[in-house]
Design a protein that fits this description.
CATH class of the largest domain: Mainly Beta
Low-confidence stretches: 4-22
Distance between the termini: 92 Å
CATH topology of the largest domain: Porin
Shape: rod-shaped
Strand content: 35-45%
């Protein structure tokens, strides 16, 4: 068929791509030159035309085109002058290339003037057209375009094919979209070196020697510390024997270290003697320890309580000498909760 070689060109046009294309204009004027291949018995003709395009958006453009051609009939060599006016819609396919393919369709009016023996006869057709093409950015305001079209007459049931190429001038440019430079995030800091980034650190300036929790605060360890006092006395005596001075001194040092502590020292006796005597003796033993803490070691009086229990709370069996010795005693216990900061190894 005479149109076969034209149809083959449409596949070649759609396959071309390279570079990058940016559509930033609103209007375009183009001048075209082409070749029309007629189904009627008319010689193929060179066409030329002018068009004006309005860009709707990045995909769609409306295109008003006027074109002309001169040819002859295949039989008799009669002159044929053709004029077309049409309105097309072009849909552009977005690519990252300098070549930008599009499809086109439209409707228009064609007038053919046939001259036979000096007499002109006019014929008019309403044409529908469908085609595909490609545009290439030439830089600046210039653009190359080419397409293949099929024109179908609604009045006379023929279809012509046309191959066109042209140059467009683009104007009404809008500002090209500016791509923001990628923001390179600076690496987060750990200013105090505790292993927790500043964005999550709720305790800045933590010493590097401290263990920290997930929000950068020092880990605290709370524990109970205590000391016990247990000294014994000779029978019927309330004097602290030299070998127990160290026990009293240890209690005093503990109370110096933990100033919020208060101690109660308890005096006790064995079961020998009357209850009244033992009660008084037990109080004297408790008072002697209290006096030593105050006078020898500087513990304030309000931090020491002394209570005598007589023989009421035996620690051992009063039936034996060993048991009675254990019962002649002063005892005390001091404990407190201490919170310390955990450190790294």
């Amino acid at each position: 068929m005479k149109h076969t070689h034209v149809l083959a060109l449409s596949a070649a046009i759609a396959a071309v791509s390279a570079g990058a294309y940016a559509d930033t204009h609103k209007f375009e004027i183009h001048a075209d030159l082409g070749r029309t291949f007629f189904e009627d018995p008319i010689n193929d003709a060179t066409t030329w035309g002018l068009g004006f395009g309005y860009v709707l958006n990045e995909n769609w453009t409306l295109d008003a085109v006027a074109s002309q051609y001169d040819t002859e009939t295949e039989a008799g060599g009669f002159s044929v002058d053709g004029t077309q006016y049409r309105l097309d819609a072009l849909y552009h396919i977005n690519t990252e290339s300098l070549w930008r393919p599009y499809v086109a369709f439209g409707v228009g009016d064609q007038k053919r003037e046939l001259s036979v023996a000096g007499v002109a006869e006019d014929a008019r057709d309403t044409l529908l057209n469908l085609g595909a093409g490609v545009k290439r950015d030439l830089g600046g305001n210039w653009e190359f375009r080419t397409d293949v079209r099929a024109f179908n007459s609604l009045d006379n049931e023929y279809t012509d094919l046309a191959l066109n190429a042209g140059i467009s001038y683009l104007f009404g440019k809008t500002a090209a979209p500016v791509k923001a430079a990628p923001v390179v995030a600076e690496p987060e800091k750990d200013s105090d070196g505790d292993g927790v980034l500043d964005s999550k650190d709720q305790c800045p300036d933590t010493p590097k020697t401290h263990k920290v929790d997930e929000v950068g605060c020092s880990l605290k360890l709370t524990e109970t510390v205590s000391i016990e006092l247990n000294i014994t006395f000779d029978t019927a005596k309330a004097i602290i024997k030299p070998e127990f001075e160290g026990e009293v001194a240890n209690l005093a040092r503990f109370m110096d270290q933990y100033a919020d502590t208060i101690v109660t020292v308890e005096g006790h006796t064995d079961s020998q003697g009357s209850d009244a005597y033992n009660q008084k003796l037990s109080q004297s033993r408790a008072d002697s320890v209290k006096a030593a803490l105050i006078t020898k070691y500087g513990i304030t009086a309000d931090r020491v309580n002394a209570i005598g229990y007589g023989e009421a709370k035996p620690a051992a069996d009063n039936a034996t000498a060993e048991g009675r010795e254990k019962n002649r005693r002063v005892v005390g216990n001091v404990s407190t909760k201490v919170t310390t900061t955990e450190t790294r190894n």
